[in-house]
Amino acid sequence: MLSTVLERVTKVVVDRLGVDESEVKPEASFREDLGADSLDVVELVMEFEDEFETEISDDDAEKIATVGDAVSYIKEKVGE
Amino acid sequence: MGRFDEKTAVVTGASRGIGRTVALRLASEGAKVVVNYSGSQEKAEAVVEEIRSAGGEAFAFQANVSDADQVKEMMDEAIKQFGSIDFLVNNAGITRDNLLMRMKEDEWDDVLAINLKGVFLCTKAVTRQMMRQRAGRIVNLASVVGVVGNAGQANYVAAKAGVIGLTKTTAKELAARNILVNAVAPGFITTDMTDELGEEMKEQLLSTIPLGKLGSAEDVAGTVAFLLSDEAKYITGQTINVDGGMVM
Ligand SMILES: NC(=O)c1ccc[n+]([C@@H]2O[C@H](COP(=O)([O-])OP(=O)(O)OC[C@H]3O[C@@H](n4cnc5c(N)ncnc54)[C@H](OP(=O)(O)O)[C@@H]3O)[C@@H](O)[C@H]2O)c1
C-alpha cells in the first residue's frame, strides 16, 4: 500500500519534531505552531529530500513554511 | 589502533606544509583522509602514497576551495568512498602580501576567496552530512595575525580575522547538532609560506617569540588532532594560538 504524500510528510514531521499527529494540519507552520527552530526546518527539508528522493534547492526550501507548503511542493515536484 | 580509527577526514590544502602534516598525523592515528590540493598533484599523490604504505586509507582530490561546484564534488566523493565525513580541516590558504596602499584589487580578492570564502564553502558543503550524523568536527586554520594585525598583510589579516568570526558563528549555529567548530591560529611555522621570508626578517621575528624559535607543522597538527579528539568534546567556538607565546 502506497501512502499519500500527506501521510508521509506527517510521519517525517512527527518523527523529527516529536509533535502529536493531530497537530500536523496543512495550515500548521513548522516554526509558529510546531515548535521548530530554523535549523529544524533545514533538517525537515533534508528529510523530505530523503523520503521523496528528490532535491529541494535553497530557494525553494525557503518557501516551505507550513505542512501544506511542503505537501503541495512535493506533489508538484514528484508529479503526484 | 588509534584514536581516529573508523573516522573520516577531509583536509584542504593537504599537498604541502601544515595541511600535509595534518593529513599524515590523522592517518597515522587511524583516520581515512581526503588529501585535497589545487595545483600540486604530484605532492598530493605522494602524501596519499605515504599514508597507504603505512597501511592507511586516503585519496587525493583536486578542488579549488573557492569554487562551490568543485567543493561539492569533493564532499560527495568523500561520502561515496568513505560513507561519512567526521572531520573537516579547513587549511588551504595563500598569501599575496603588499602594503595597503600598493595592494591590488585582485590580490585582495584572491586571498579573500581562498582563505575566507573557501572556509565558508567547505563548511557549508559538509554541514548537511554532519547534521545527519548528529556529529562532526571542524577545525579552521586562522593565524595570530588575524588577532593582532600585521603590516603588509591587509588582505590576509582580514581573511583570517574573518575565519575567527566565522568559526564562532558556525559553532553557535551547529552546536545543537553536536558539531564542534574551532580554529587554530599558528604564529610563525616553518613551511613554504614562511621560507619566503628573508634572514633579517626572520631574526626580527624571533625576537618577538617568547619561546625563541619558529614552530613546526607538527606543533600545529598536534593541536588540530587534539581538537578533533574525544578530549576536546566540550570545546567549541575557540581559537587556540600555537605561536610560541607571541600573542597572549
Ligand atoms: N606557515 C605559517 O607560518 C602559518 C602561520 C599562520 C597561519 N598559517 C595558515 O596555515 C595554513 C597552511 O599554511 P602553510 O604554511 O602550510 O601553506 P603552504 O605550505 O603554502 O601550503 C598551502 C596549501 O594550500 C593549498 N591551496 C592553495 N590554494 C588552494 C585552493 N584554492 N584550493 C585548495 N587548496 C589550495 C596548497 O595546495 P597546492 O600546492 O596544490 O596549490 C597547499 O597544499 C594556511 O591557511 C595558512 O594561512 C600558516
Description:
The complex is a heterodimer of chains A (80) and B (248). With 80 residues, chain A is mainly alpha-helical. Chain A has a single domain (3-16, 28-76), classed as Non-ribosomal Peptide Synthetase Peptidyl Carrier Protein, Chain A, CATH 1.10.1200. In chain A, 56% of the residues lie in helices and 0% in strands. Chain A contains 4 helices and no strands. Chain A has helices spanning 5-17, 38-52, 58-62, 67-78. In chain A, helix 1 packs across helix 4 (67-78). The relative contact order of chain A is 0.19. Chain B has 248 residues and is α/β, with parallel strands linked by helices. Chain B has one domain (8-241): NAD(P)-binding Rossmann-like Domain (Rossmann fold), CATH 3.40.50. Chain B is 48% helix and 15% strand. Chain B has 9 helices and 7 strands; from the N terminus they run βαβαβαβαβααβαααβ. Chain B has helices spanning 17-28, 41-53, 68-82, 105-133, 145-148, 154-174, 192-195, 199-206, 217-228; strands at residues 8-11, 32-37, 58-62, 87-90, 136-141, 179-186, 239-242. A 7-stranded parallel β-sheet of chain B has the order 3-2-1-4-5-6-7, sandwiched between helices. In chain B, strand 1 (8-11), helix 1 (17-28) and strand 2 form a beta-alpha-beta unit. Residues 12-13, 15-19, 36-40, 64-66, 91-94, 114, 141, 143, 186, 188-189, 191-194 of chain B line the site of NADP nicotinamide-adenine-dinucleotide phosphate.
Compact description:
By secondary structure, chain A is mainly α. Chain A has 4 helices and no strands.
Keywords:
heterodimer; A: 80 residues; mainly alpha; Non-ribosomal Peptide Synthetase Peptidyl Carrier Protein, Chain A; 4 helices; 56% helix; 0% strand; globular; B: 248 residues; alpha/beta; Rossmann fold; seven-stranded parallel sheet; 7 strands; binds NADP nicotinamide-adenine-dinucleotide phosphate; fatty acid metabolism (chain B); fatty acid biosynthesis (chain B); Sc_DH/Rdtase_CS (chain B)
